[in-house]
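Any chance you could type out a protein's amino acid sequence plus the matching backbone structure tokens because I've never seen that pairing?

——
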Amino acid sequence: MQTRAAVVEAQGQPFTLSDVELEEPRADEVLVRMVATGLCHTDLTMGSFLPPEMFPNVFGHEGAGVVERVGADVAGLEAGDHVVLSFRSCRDCAKCRAGLVGYCDSHLLLNYMGMRLDGSQPISRDGEPLFGSFFGQSSLAAHALAYADNCVKVDPALDLTLLAPYGCGFQTGAGTVLTVLRPRPDECLVVYGAGAVGLAAVAAARAEGVECVVAVDPLAGRRAVAERLGATVVDPAEAADVVARVKELTGGGAAYGIDTTAIPAVIKQAQQSLGIRGTLVALGLGAEEFALDAIDLLQAGKTVKASIEGDADPQEMVPRLLAMRAEGRFPLDDLVATYPAEAINDAVADVGAGTVVKPVLVW
């Protein structure tokens, strides 16, 4: 079938809306008409990070839409279902069976290689295949082929334009708090970078009753949102010593830290601002390596670790967060700024400038 997709033609190039051909769903695939797609930092990073031979490429991994057709082997989904798309997992390896679906043995192949496991690509243009199975969806398109394992069925009464970020950004930030760190109400959490992921972490921590939540971000608009969500905010440009200021606010150092920036200097500050035996989770994608303060790490028994998608299972985490949203405990709707699909590069520019937190494209 013919549809439209936002194609990155070559490494480091902007998106170009293009007519493409999408194959009919195979036995294990689900054809989804996209209503909205969140634009995530990973989509932008991969456009510059992947090698030249992996282009042209169709990214997108925060899709939300309506099922149009399902393959013969697909169970639990049918035409007309409203779904949020998330990352893929095989659901059969030892890690998946243990509930660690983000660490699936086939995670890289299923999510980043832009093709099916058999090497075929579901999207083509003028007879030439495009890389087009990013996170098993490539949902920066008017239609996408997905799978039962990465389709989360949602209430059709809900606005899909507001649900798209739950497939990755909101899930990652909130999941890191709810699944990885699990702070007690009397412990302190510091979030570095108050974008969509960081603000989701702030909201989740406050929803769990954590009283001491600090957000560090240079952008006034994002600090204002973090403050509204219940965080104490720090402007790193105004703080003479960010580490000292955070330690002051957290009574000598935070129990937990989350970095979403992938900026090496910020990650080091985040580690140093932890208290004794504190834990930092690095979530940002971008820097290939970063330096830690070894003396501080060893003498204080600190932990620095990473997490894929907040160690969450989207089939469990997305419904959990939507239930919290319905209860008024996860109030992130106003983070979403919608754009027509044709304005995708405007959305990229605006999120880069910090004028919006979470751009969502409407098809």
Notes: The mean pLDDT is 97. The chain has two domains: 2-167+332-362, 172-308. The longest strand covers residues 29-38.
